[in-house]
Write a structure and sequence with these properties.
Blueprint: E1 3-4, H1 6-18, E2 27-34, E3 40-47, E4 54-59, E5 62-67, H2 68-74, E6 78-84, E7 87-93, E8 99-100, E9 106-108
Parallel strand pairs: 1-6, 2-5
Antiparallel strand pairs: 2-3, 3-9, 4-5, 6-7, 8-9
Length: about 110
């Protein structure tokens, strides 16, 4: 399961509205791909259709879609949004990550 903080929910809702979408009919696709300074990087995008090997979760009224392979790396992760002076963006708090890079966009196990 992946959790969604209140700040992330608010930002996701705002971004969906900008695209003319609704939170209730869309979901956030979260995945892991090879790359980044630590070996694996997070992939985050909006989607409206699921694939055969997807798992769909809902937390804080946000539907999250994750493929089975990525779920192994992301179980227990919390998606947050930071809008501070040091940078803006979505942040993954992943309890499975042994090491993360300085920007927080990649990790290793």
């Amino acid at each position: 399961m992946i959790r969604v903080s209140e700040e992330a929910k608010e930002r996701i809702s705002a971004l969906l509205r900008e695209e003319g979408r609704e939170l209730s009919s869309s979901f956030v696709r979260v995945g892991v791909k090879s790359g980044g300074c630590s070996g694996l990087s997070y992939d985050l995008k909006f989607d409206g259709a699921t694939q055969e090997d997807d798992r769909v979760f809902e937390d804080n009224d946000v539907r999250i879609c994750v493929d089975k392979k990525s779920l192994l790396y992301l179980a227990g992760t919390t998606l947050e949004y930071s809008g501070g002076l040091n940078g803006k963006g979505f942040v993954f708090h992943n309890p499975n990550a042994q090491r993360t890079c300085g920007c927080g966009e990649s990790f290793s196990l």
